[in-house]
Amino acid sequence: MNMTVTIKDVAKKAGVSAATVSRVLNNSGYVYEDTRKAVMEAINHLQYKPNEVARSLYKRTSKLIGLVLPDITNPFFPALARGVEDNLQQQGYRVIFGNTDGDTTKEMEYIDTFLQHNVVGLIASVDHLHHEVLTNLRVPVVTVDRITEELPAVYADHKSGGRLAAEKLISSGCEKIVVLRGPQDAKPLYDRFQSAMQYLSEKNVSVNFIDCQLSFEDGRKKAKELFNQFPDTEGIIACNDLVAAAMLHEAVTRGINVPTDLQVIGYDNITISEIVHPSLTTIHQPTYDMGVKAADMLIKLINKEKLGMIHEQLPVYLKERNSTLNGGI
Amino acid sequence: MNMTVTIKDVAKKAGVSAATVSRVLNNSGYVYEDTRKAVMEAINHLQYKPNEVARSLYKRTSKLIGLVLPDITNPFFPALARGVEDNLQQQGYRVIFGNTDGDTTKEMEYIDTFLQHNVVGLIASVDHLHHEVLTNLRVPVVTVDRITEELPAVYADHKSGGRLAAEKLISSGCEKIVVLRGPQDAKPLYDRFQSAMQYLSEKNVSVNFIDCQLSFEDGRKKAKELFNQFPDTEGIIACNDLVAAAMLHEAVTRGINVPTDLQVIGYDNITISEIVHPSLTTIHQPTYDMGVKAADMLIKLINKEKLGMIHEQLPVYLKERNSTLNGGI
DNA sequence: GTGAAAGCGCTAACAG
DNA sequence: CTGTTAGCGCTTTCAC
Question: Which helix (H) or strand (E) holds A68?
Fold first, then answer.
């Protein structure tokens, strides 16, 4: 069967020492072109693949990067994850990952075992309350879609995002607005909520808010609550697209016409927002790019390069579709 | 700073040898309760965490499992992935993963490097044409949502799935039916298409098919094609929910009333199918459970336990929503 | 240029 | 019950 072939086997076959094989493998030191060829031949012949674990043990480093996300089932994160993975994979890194469901215990568990596997870096999306876990690790960390002072971070401009949404509803004539407030321990959610509220408070409109998780399920529950509690709502700013979709859904069910009687704005611009009916006006986040960017930063950090800036803020924009009144009121 | 603390440090601190520390770590061999306590204390005091890489090198095994999926951006896979991960994580395994986009090169690349990292097993969703790659690996492999003779597999009953969809359209009165045919090198797609066609061919109805990728984007393109080519279509069987959503979308755009003038059936029952309007009648696959089951099988294989059966087929069912005429015609 | 030897951190005989 | 020793597969001085 597939008995593992080691560097020694290659050495023997090529009639050289393991050290020499190692040298050609790593392009380190000098090797005669002839012996180099002999070694390569042996390698190909034996289908030799170096054992990364042994390598990792000696070098106390690896090609593994840990990715810690809340929940890959939320469509926002797969896009992010692919951005990270595509970039990393291309540079020879592999990613080992875990979903935490925002649970600190799981976060720590994953981070610990990732480190035990000699990961060279971590990309994490973890509530800022738990960020201590990420500080003073022995490997660089980049946070995505989350923000703390100290840690390098990639995130979108949620202050603009929140304001953009609010502006839009105001400019399309809403006077009774409900804002769904996502979990406030995640800074992006906090920012977009605050900045929307801030803008709205300066206008002469009625505004209320309801707390809501980021899932379709919870959106659904809160939608019922919303329409019961504030039946004459004219505009809704949702904390993400999933929740916005739930609002749309409940509105349709109740025979409320969107966007004529009610306008809804989502957040993220995940695929779903295009698919729902009416299609969803939303704040676009460059999700995939955030992943790519985070991987870029991490690799720089791993290579001890200086970062231009610790915090990389990416722009968002309003994507108008059919859940709002467009072209003015 | 965080200089790594090794087993030797613990040994020194506890006044014993490394071997003894190892013993208490692994609960192997006998250790005096007192020395055990001393060791534990040293461990806690030093915050010692064993180096999994060293462990892995010696034991030629690890707690790592490789997960190979086509594209986590397709909402079907995150659910599957979480099923896998939740199960594995609980048993102390960690997952290292890669998206292949159905590209054999990437598949092989990932599998190779996973093996180089001493993974103890692989869970893969890979087109059956490429299954040779997976055979004769030195670790057990379980395929998910894919089928080959030789390899253990977890998948849903797509023959029933295809027939269920076809039956439904017939029983709700469709006489002009178009079936979207997904990529046929994936057995599940093949099965569901064939069995739908088979059933339809026995009925006295007009049936056509169009090839289609599994994405919303391609669905969109093919939707236009479909309505141009077969404008009087009464029923559509889509290859998955994403594509079905695209059909719905195009139908609405063209002012075709669903389900009155046109009925649509999806496949998978991902969250989206509930969110679209009208909500989508679809074939439900137990996606998360498939992941859990696959992890179960793999762990058994890793532990050298015998499997009851190599192929685990999970049931599907028709989930009726509002894109079909329900309660008979 | 190349080989011998030591060692990364851990575990598994083998003595004692 | 516990320490000593050897070795997992690889890389890296250090001689030659």
Answer: strand A64-69
CB contact under 8 A, B49 and A245: no
Span CA (B52) to C1' (C8), Å? 13
Average pLDDT of the residues in A236-241: 97
B-chain residue closest to A242, CA distance: B275
- Segment 221-260 of chain B within 8 Å of chain A by CB: 245-246, 248-249, 252
Cα-Cα end-to-end distance for chain B: 74
For A153, the token pair is 């971070």
Chain B nearest-CA residue for A88: B98
- Confidence at A323, pLDDT banded by 50, 70, 90: very high
B188/B182 Cα distance (integer angstroms): 9
| Per-residue confidence (pLDDT) for residue B132, from 0 to 100 | 76
Q: Which helix (H) or strand (E) holds A98?
A: strand A94-99
Confidence of residue A2 (pLDDT cuts 50, 70, 90): low
**Percent of all residues in chain B with a pLDDT value above 90, rounded to a whole number:** 87
d(CA B252, CA A138): 55
Give the 3-state secondary structure of residue A97.
strand
Q: DSSP code of A73?
A: T
Rg (CA), chain B: 26
The first and second tokens of residue A329, run together, are: 């009121």
Q: Output Rg (C-alpha) for chain A, integer angstroms.
A: 26
B270 reaches A (C-beta below 8 A): no
Q: Report the candidate in B56, B70, B79 with the shortest Cα–Cα distance to residue B127.
A: B70
What digits encode the pLDDT tens for the residues A110-145?
A: 999 999 999 999 999 987 667 777 888 899 999 999
CB A119 within 8 A of CB A139: yes
Among B227, B174, B178, B234, which Cα is nearest to B204's? B174
Tens-digit pLDDT profile for residues A38-95: 999 999 999 999 999 999 999 999 999 999 999 999 999 999 999 999 999 999 999 9
